[in-house]
## 1
Amino acid sequence: MRLFGTGALGRVVRSGVGRRRVQTVVIALATMMAVAAAVVAGSLIVASDAPFDRAFAKQRGAHITAQFDPAKASTAQLKATGRLPGVTASAGPYPSTTIRPVDPQGGHLSALTLVGRSHPHADVDDVDLKSGRWAAKPGEVVLSASLAAPTLPLGTVLKASDDQGSPRLKVVGFAVSAGRTADAWATPEQAGALGSKDGPATSQMLYRLDSAGTKKQIAAGRKALTAAVPSGALLGTQSYLDTKRAADRGTAATIPFLVAFGVLGTVMSVIIVSSVTSGAVGTSLRRIGILKAIGCTPRDIVRAYVAQALIPAVVGVALGVVLGNLLAVPLLDDTEQVYGSPSLTVAWWVNLVVPAAALFLVSLAALIPALRAGRLCTVEAIAVGRAPRTGRGQWAHRAVGRLPLPRAVTYGLAGPFAHPVRTAGMLLAVAFGTVAATFALGLTASLNAVGDAADPEERAAVTAIGGPPDGAHGGTRPGGADPRPRSADPAKVRAAIEAQPGTASYYGMTKNDVTVTGVSGPVKATLYQGDSRPGSYEMISGHWLTGAGQVVVPTRFLERTGTRIGDTVRVTLGEDTQTLRIVGEAFDTSDDGLSVHAGLADFAAAEPQVFQIEVDAGVSPEEYARKLAEAVTPLGGNAMTNAPSRQENMILVLDAMAALLTLMLVSVAGLGVLNSVVLDTRERVHDVGVCKALGMSPRQTVSLVLASVAGIGVLGGLIGVPAGFALHRFVLPMMGHAAGTNLPPSVLQVYDAPQLVLLGLAGVVIAMLGATLPAAWAAKARTATALRTE
Amino acid sequence: MTHLIQLEGVAKRYDSAGAPALGPIDLHVAQGEALAVTGPSGSGKSTLLNLVAGLDKPTEGAVTVAGQRVDRLNEHASARFRRERIGMVFQFFNLLDDLTVADNIQLPAQLTGTPRRKAAARAAELMDVLGIGTHARAYPGRLSGGERQRVAVARALVNRPALLLADEPTGALDTASGRDVRELLVDLHQGGQTIVLVTHDLSLAEACASRTIRLVDGHLAFDSRTEAVR
């Protein structure tokens, strides 16, 4: 404690910290920003590292979710299955049914699995209540937090179904089940009562197994369950492995992005903290010489200067941890919703490792120049501090002085050449700041392009509903509610559309389950009638449907089937099997990337369910939809405008993260420049005083200081923009691959030339922002005082 | 007689509670006059010079130089005033080490916006006159003290200032170099240049100045003109 105590050296340290206030503040701020960025990035990386596994373990999720027929297996029989060999815990039986609720506006939510549970807590699937409370009486329902939306707040009253007299359910809470055992929960009585002919109540049992790591182990567990109950009693099971696979695919996409920002943040922190601390020591050589002259040992000097850097760094680290935690909270809240995880917090070890690493870096950065200072002989140290500068940079003054620019500007432009190491540090800071800005802008544009590319059918101004109700998927509206499928003759709806004034173009579409040779299980097929190009997906390669016998598929389909564009696949819809040629690879991640898009004409039995309509210029879509609805409603159809789709939560979270991390990195870069310019200005204060005595005006002084960083800003931009561009080109495909898709040009080629030029100027802006304050100080400095400064 | 410098009741306090560092004093300097300001350390010589140069502002009184109220100028106007009307020579030369001799001399001209070629021609002319033409491309660090002070004088004269202020111009020079600079100042005065010279060196004052004043504790203790009149 001698360093910080009341001894002479303690006073030296304290006076050093107090005397160099700007450097002290810059060290504290740079460390704070770096630590805050690292805490945010670190906690998000931790949160995105197997969030399913952690949430599942925390909730003691069900390895197997089984549905039984209560008519064939008694409660006692079902409870007995919890004691089967290999089963370590069980919960249930809970009454369970499927409902298709209707919101207050009349929109249908998608079908929900509703389970009757008297409370959220259980030995298996300990559900996490996110908001509100648990359902306490009939007429109340708790929804999965994934359904939470501004249009569906707590207190909303839903109708359980379309049926007249259907019970009303008030939303009293939102909850998360990591294993996705249900979409909604009510009291057991309510769940039982909601069972109907179409959706009879079943009994849900939840099991944890001692060995559940592989499909084979899950299959063995299911086999044991089947054998333990009467024949036909086990209606179906859900494996947690399937839920985990779907959840992990979503999170995997964020990892490359977070790693990119994490690496950028770490490198920036090292550069800035090193340059700030070494600069602080480097500019104190004369003081060091004097201290040695009055009896300080080299060890004292090293300790004093390391401590001088560590004091503001400790303050910065503490503030950074607090700030990082505060900033991480809203992002983790969003992440919870995206991942469907229970409450996420900043991992405790992130709050220890990040500060420890930051303090280690600061100590290391300060130690190297402090050791150099400690080794200097006293006379040399004093001489280094007082001697006129060496000839470094004189050639630059000669060369730049010839430029046809004001003298104050050319004098400033040549300045950085006098301190190559400091200039290199500043250049790196600006370049990294520009990389961050370029990468973040590209990433945001790409993510928005991904959002825009989803659900292309929603680009149409108006949607008309026709077609048979069975299997109808078309026309799902944003917000989860979809229009009531009605039985309308598609030909009559089509005729009504054609007869409607203001129709510019339209196409029909239907979604059906098909089978594809070589793919086990059903595949979702979207079949189009007419010119479907306005609703086409973004193409990664090949082209959209242009005629009969063609099919467009996503990347995952090609990978799964081992096919390429030009190959043929056999697609079966009902009794109709067609051989279709793959003509394009579409950017379509819906339905696990296993959907196909083909012409409706290839399947004789298929009919369009919805029609997507473009209206003539000047025609109001609302008015058009109202009139068309009047025409098709008597036919059993409907028409409505398409609301602009909201960006997906995941995209919004990534956008917010990118903005926050970029802001922090750019701020840290600006602080790095600020510190370097402060050091420079302080060293040159006498020269500035001379210039002012010779008649340099405050404006010319500001020009001089700003010009001293302008070149660095330009060069930093020239380095940073291509590097950020390359980083974007490297990271985005990795994110795509992690999500199981290649990316189309619209997602990858998001930069245009003017944007790149503007981004190049970001380097100049960072440099100028960092230099503005010292420039103002230099302009305000009293000339007489500056002239007296050694 | 036209007065180039007029100080009316000028005082400067650095500490509002303490005694003034200078004045109050009244002082008039005529066009073409060479005034030597002498006095012990802390007597207010440099403060007087700073006030005349517009580097500092008086606490009270009026400072008028070449018809301009210097004490009322803002920072920008004060800088313009200095580069157009004042040339300054310092004890420790205050040359910019990273600029060549020629660039140092041209700097004040370039700050006023004088075209590069014209500034270079004027600098070359001064270098010839002051005998430093051979060092045009050298850096100040390689020159002797006397040569550096000649460069400083050339820089001070490049804009043809109405007033040359010299603060201990021989204070950092050896005897031979000091003699050179003294002769240079004498020549300038004889050429009609108004000079205010702050110095401890009475022989320099005697050789260069047409008038000498002595400051003691911020007050005018002696003025050769009024003493002479008396």
Note: Chain B has a mean pLDDT of 90.
## 2
Amino acid sequence: MNEKEQKSQFALLLPVEPGLECLRSRWILEGRPQEVRNLVFWDTFEWGVWFGGYLLSSCNNLLQLTDRARWPGSVLCQEPAPEIPRFWQEFASGPMRTALRDLLGLRALAPVAEGIFRHQQYDLRNEDGKVVCRLKLRSVTALEPERLLLQDCLLLPLLGYEAEAADVTACLTEAGAHVHTYHPAELLLQSSGNPPRRYTLRPDFGLKAATPAREAISTIVRSMLDLVHANLPGILQDRDTEFLHDYRICLRKIRSLLSLVKGVYPVTDIQQIRATLGDLARQTNRLRDLDVYLLAREEYLDLLPSPFRPALNSMFDDFALEREAEIRTVTARLASPAFQQLLHDVSVYFAEGTQHPPSAAAALPVEPLVFARIYRRYRTIRKIASGIDASTPDEGIHQLRIECKKLRYLMEFFNELIPGDRSATLQKQLRRLQGRLGEFNDASVQQASLLAYREQRQPGAEISLGLGGLVSVLYQQQQQSRIFIKQSLDEFCSGPTAAIFKRTFKLSASHITTDLYRQTNQ
Amino acid sequence: MNIISSYSIKGGVGKTALAVNLAYVLRESGRRTLLIDLDPQGAAAFYFRMGSAKKLRMRDSDALADGLRSNIRESDFPGLDIIPSNLAYRNFDIVLDSMSKSRKRLRKVLDEFKPDYDVILLDCPPNITLLSENVFRASDLIVVPVIPTVLSQRTLDQLTLFFQNEELPVEILRPFFSMVQKRNRMHRDIMDELPLSNPHFLKTVIPFSADVEKMGLRRMPLLAYSSNCEAAMAYRALCNEILCQTAARP
């Protein structure tokens, strides 16, 4: 279909009765055989395909990736798929695998909607028998429960017969039809119980500078708890590793927030909630470690010369087996009434309208309170950074990483209060620094973990040799990342960056009395 | 873009049947095709169940191009558009005559359609006029139906002579035998002799057939309603032979 043809086409929403019957008095209607297609649409929890601008659908064992705006035309790639693979890596090499790699990332595919699409083309002929207009009668029926979502008619005018197309439109309009812009596939997805929506761990909370601190914190915690709940089904079904990953991040962020804004809630309550959330996160530590190893399997193997790889492969097989057991343990815990009760108690604590005893900072406007804490956190990092050199032990760098993470969380939570350009600049630098620190930490943790594996399992000589090789490569990487950390730290602690931090966070907080802050920031 | 004309000085030799079926085969082969009915009788458009074109303003080549464009109509066969004829086309000669470079105007007008079509087919009126000369100068290939009779042979000779006198490229002429009755001895004799003096004669022969005549009743190309009869197969073979020759041309 060329551009000219596409532009001249338009769709009319048709009443189910009388459909096209009204046209028979003026034209000869010639219907072609109806095409019926049962389509299943596939996407990830994050709707990577949808937000990438595509639709992925299967019909009769054929999987098609289509440009969303031009669906059902413009098929980008297709391949036979008697069973739809879950991850992009499971597709055979080719355009589908390449396209899905970018759209899916670590996420698994799952069916998101199913519908029956019926198409029937009609030719409208005049008294000479000449086709003067074409119509495509279309309907979309959603399944489970079965319901007609849309019946429309796509007008395909013929060049030189525009007047006839206008007559057909007038005739249909008189019978109750009207122009619409619904996209049949999008309508099906939007009408499903789970319509496409943006998923982010950094939502906007609708905070204002003057929002009372307790109200602001409870709003943020509620949002994060919603995300915890949203990720639980994916963990229970073990759809992909990112559900657990995000679940843990949310728990960690709530704990971090509660520790960073002391004085907003009664201290004993917060200690108890933080301990509960800490326990919940810890229960999944091993599973996450195993996920990280298994995701990096190929990467690890590539670090070693090929003769060592088969031996190391058996270590990953051990990890895979251990993961099977671990996921069972974790899902049993998450499905247990005790777990549900714990999460429920936390939710109730932060629910709207729940009353708690007053505390020093509860009613303070959130912006100056938080900005002061952001600035203090930055100064702490600068202080630690000034003592970092080539001889700093790993623990020192680990401590720096923790502090950076706290700062990052604070800046993310209250991002909407920070002027956009400064927020972007600072967060970019912080992200870069954290990336370096993360690489360092990963290398350090992985070395310890590999050595622990050797200690516990006492593997044979060949695996031990492979492990030794891997540990030494990781050690080299770790030493290398020290240099990069120094560079990123210098940038992050430099005069210009410090000036932005000061201008943004220190000065705006200065109108709050020093005494009050001394009291609440302890 | 290729411009192919179906032309003969003599009428009733199968020009329009060729143009209509060739157009059908061209769109079938995936080529975006425009058939322009230049014959005021309007038979080509009739075969596609169309009426005549709106009257054209023909004061200059721009107005003529606009007028032709506004008369393009989609046929029932996707990929094939038609510009029907109009009785006013009988005045083409007078209009062309009033223009500067009056023998090359048509080519300039048709160049306007280059972006939209792969092939333009011209169904020409049976005479030799200024319009005909424009067609000769615009065409990449001119297919000439020849009934194997003495009169047809004579008109082919006249055409060849005209090309030579006007220094037109004779090699773009592609005669072929049309409406052939194999039992007719004179047909057979002429078919043996004529190609000897015309090296560009096409090999395919179109037989005389009642199936072709039914095009007037069915109002569609023969190939659209009877693709397996002898004449239909001959048309398809002829079209493929023409296609091979146009593909070979630069």
Note: The two ends of chain B are 10 Å apart (CA to CA).
## 3
Amino acid sequence: MIHFDRVFKRYPNGRDALSDLSLHLDSGEMVFLTGHSGAGKSSLLKLIALIERPTRGSLIVNGQNVANVSTSKIPAFRRQIGIVFQDHKLLYDRTIYDNVALPLIIAGISAREIGRRVRAALDQVGLLGRENGLPVELSTGEQQRVGIARAVVSKPQILIADEPTGNLDPDLSVEVMNIFRRFNEVGVTVLVASHDVHLLQHFNLRRIRLEGGRVTDDGRDPAIPLFDPGKLIEREGGAR
Amino acid sequence: MSTWLARHLQTLVGSLGRLSKHWLGTTFTVLVIGIALALPACLHLLVVNLERASNDWDRAITLSIYLKQGTSPDAAHRLSERVRQRRDIAQVTLITAEEGLKEFRRRSGFGQAIDALTDNPLPHSLVIRPAADYMDGAHLETLAADLRQLPNVDLVQLDTAWVNRLNAILDTLRRAILATAALLALGVMVIVGNTIRLDIQNRRDEIEVTKLVGGSNAFVRRPFLYAGIWYGLGGGLIAWMVAGGIVAALTAPISRLAGFYDSDFRLVGLGLEPTAILLATGVMLGWLGSFVAATRHLREIEPS
């Protein structure tokens, strides 16, 4: 689904963010991207979303070589990827409904279908019934879930998240990660960048560690299950 | 298709809603555009009304022919019949020397002085009204020249200088309107463009987010284009009201003035077609100004 082949990324200021990076993500995989800040996690995600382009090497996302995606085709390219940001990037002067509906409006979907899908997405993140509120009325964790609903509302095949739990306390972080897992279970390829090693230990998933723009570790660390993620899902479900 | 239409309508109404949220700034922008558009509209009204007034005066154009002293009344009659045959002449009135003297005696009040005269000092004269199709300067000059060639004609008097001058003034005014309109159109585009540029800067975050979730430049630009259209339409309406107000204020005094000149001249306002042109021009300029600004400045905003 996502193939990096000897990719280099050098910024105009001369900083090398990624050097000789090769990486393969299969369709339907869920992968954590770890490493210290500045290791290249954000740059890697920006290349996938075509916010930046590789300096060298080839990157293929969902069968498309990004080198062949012209600037005018970038919007269409991005519509097949759901992106979750650390700072949510919500529109604070619009309702929660309008925020989640934005990708569907862009895609030109009919109003009735939008209503159905927005409610489904909000239901999946546990915010059904809050459509008419404004983002500022929500807690940080809830705002992040609105961001996730917006990322998944158009049913993308790829979901990428950059430090989605950066501003959340541990309980909320696990909850957010579990939301990602549920999307992964229905076939979405998920790539989550996080430096929170303790949080990732709760999940027995592939972990790619970046250091200085290179992959230094790739595999399933023996997970130390502090508690069973399955139970967490149940607990969250019960609370609702 | 219906989704597309509904989306456009929604954006159209949505951009109006956003403008009304910042109603003070919007009002000022629309007022400035309206005043800029009102100026050429009022100049247009001035020219249209001057043209109508001068058409009235054209009908008053006459040529006077004075025959040589000593021409017999019969010769004068023959000449008037001959002139009447010309197709560029609508009406010929012969005023014989005797009739002329009688008229002069009656009107001037110099009765006794005239009675003291042994001879009639007045010549026979013809008053000629040209046909409507031959009322312009060049034709009148030809006609006068032809008439001068006729036998027994002493003097042909044609006062077209003021008609020519008025027409020249009207031509100059028309050019001035075009130049003014072009400059002000540019001004309107700059006003709208600058307003849209500021709006884009204020909504930078929103534009970035929209682009991040796959919004194309055209999609992001659309609300700004509709805002430009609203600005232009609002400005056009203001200009229309200004022109209408000026006409309303001037109608009564001008009718009175015309009354003193025995004219039934009435000021006309902007008709249906000029009004449509004014509003369409406003809409077009608003759209164009925002298109140029939005295309330029939206390209600069890319997520990073």
Note: Residues 204 and 301 of chain B are 7 Å apart (CA to CA).
## 4
Amino acid sequence: MNSGGVSLWPELLESLGQTLQMVVVTLLVGGFAGLLLGLALYTTRQGNLFANRPVNAVLNVLVNIVRPIPFIIFITGILPLTIAVTGASYGTNAVIFPMTIMATFGTSRIVEQNLVALDPGVVEAARAMGAGPLRIIATVVVPEALGPLILGYTFLFVAIVDMSAMAGAVAGGGLGDFAIVYGYQRFNYVATWTAVAVIVVVVQIAQLVGNLLARRVLRR
Amino acid sequence: MTSTTATATPMVRLRDVSKVYEGRSGTVRAVDGVSLDIARGEVFGIIGYSGAGKSTLVRLINALESPTGGEVVVDGTTLTGLPERGLRPARAGIGFIFQQFNLLRSRTVAGNVAYPLKVAGWPKAKRLARVAELLEFVGLSDKARQYPDQLSGGQKQRVGIARALATSPALLLADEATSALDPETTRDVLDLLRRINLELGVTIVVITHEMSVVSYLCHRVAVMEHGKVVEAGDVYDVFARPQREVTRRFVGTALHDRPSPDVVARLRRRHPGRIVTVAVREDETTGGVPVTALLRQHGVDGTVVFGGITEVGSRPLGSLTYELVGADADVDAVVAELARRTEVVLHDEGPTAGTGGGAHEGVTA
């Protein structure tokens, strides 16, 4: 895989590193913030631990506003905020900021959906034993839903890899950037499809690990 | 549990307790002005069909729900009006077992039983010892490391019971605890509850829609309908002399002892004599009914054609239905003698049995 007689392999490796950096940071920060937001959505529902109709309505509207925005537009739209927070308008670090925000809102729905499926009986049992709501969240709600949550986060990982590919639009680096700069702009289909192949491998490995962890937690 | 509480005060005292929900389809009075005293050391049944309000009532007792009216006092503590934080220790002191067991699937059997102890802040060594003791008590020591999904329904409920007993509560609430179990397992779980009452002195409140559960386990019973307690008292008294239609239905479906109009019609095809149902009870007022002696005395033949007798609170209850054949006057005399001693139901006579039957239709004495 060459471009103008120069090997692109070092570039590809660097791009893979950037992609992994974006994905891992987004998954950790956005995933955690999304867990909190998802818990807030779940626990403020009617009849739940912190049932609060107005708060639940506001959170729902907020999530529904942010989530449908196409990520490529979102990146450019919140650029001023990105500059204010990260001090940069382009590059890997700059693009992690919008990725984290978007991942937070995306995760919150995934978390909420998995928690809603939880049998309310176990929460009632914990309440009957005198447990407080924060303890119930930490020791009953999250552990009981852990298997589906792991699968949810695996799904999220793939979505974040997808997001990271659009970082190329703001020169964010990563495999998407690589595919645009060396593939699309230089009509080099080998470069494009090599980047795609690497992304597929990364996603496959993530899905494998997620399935394995979920199976272990679910004991099936 | 607190030594300052006088033993004379009831374990549970409900005073005019109500729970009203504002639903989309209007106001629902789930519990409507219930007053009850449940004594220390007794097994108290609350029986009713689904929607009668019994599950809501039991959740008012352990403050999972707060009443919209009235007062709930448990073990000398007035729960009504306490803030959520103040209710938690009260709940921890009341055991609760559920129809669907509600075990934590992510924890082992031992982990489930240990959970309330963790909530109560027990140190690990004490927790382990207590869990071992509890699993021994319910006969599941060998299942400690298994997960709930690996257990049968009866075993799951035993875990639920061990968990409910972990903090040594003085009061145990059982919400349809056997309704998801087969008859044999039901008997095992009821025996375990009886043992808990006898050996540990725990007061138990049993919520059920099955009369067999009440008659096997309970000392006293309250019958609920439309959110109200319509009848309450000693189990035998309530079921032997039901005052309300709903109670009669429970007795009827549990015993199947009295012939329905259809059954009477079928019986009559084969039995031309007078068909009479005689109640069988064993309480202070009746020392058994000397049916054979009466028949002999009046020269009447009696054939048992239907019936059912079961034990309620360790005493027999039910009825036998006879075909009486003899001279009208003699049969009348037998029926009159029987009616003096117990409840007698005369079934309308068939066309071949002659005159005078219809007037006796219904319930006497």
Note: Strands of chain A lie at 2-3, 6-7.
